[in-house]
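I wish you would study the pair of lines that follows with an eye to the fold:

===
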Amino acid sequence: MQTADTILEASRLTKEFFGFTAVKNVDLKVRRGSIHALIGPNGAGKTTVFNLLTKFLLPTSGKIVFDGVDVSAQQPAQISRAGLVRSFQISATFPHLTVLENVRVALQRKANLATQFWRSDKVLDTLNARATELIADVNLSNFIDTPAVDLSYGRKRALEIATTLALEPKMLLLDEPMAGMGHEEIDRVAALIRKAAIGRTILMVEHNLSVVSSLCDTITVLQRGEVIAEGPYSQVSQDARVREAYLGADHA
């Protein structure tokens, strides 16, 4: 039974593809209000687990409980409406809309105005104040009228975080948020993630161990689709199986 301090729990989560087991009997508990990382070498099953949790893939077997509700049979849109929202490894902004327009589109979805294109600008302008707040939260106020295509990679990820926060998620899943970034952008986005975690829970897949060690409360390590270790970074980084699987045999 899920306890009050657990917001997401997966039990014996398994996914098979034509006889190949990509994820096998994964048990995962994410504590409410925490930043939790899912790490492992390439091919460990991290993104598959994300896809299972958000129902972009159907599990072969297993159970998923989110915020006290069994969501194992729900569709991705139902999961999102329940407050479990995912951002993808490839930035999913509208390239030729401005920063303000991108965030406003997300707010339109939250306000059930997403498909109501006949609405006047006056109606949509009522969303501008909240959009401006979210843009300020991710330090993009100076780029409010800039098309997304003209932003640096790190600022595009910041914009994606703003559009995701516009949906008012209880829990945010981030797929490799630091991929392809330089040190300055990594520091900027890490600070945004820490800020975004206030009042909500974050589960992230991330390869940058420096980010994971400084940002995350709990780390779950996968290898070949199975959990091999879990705990704070200080604990899992000393696990011989983790050092061999994730860092290479020379570190074991």
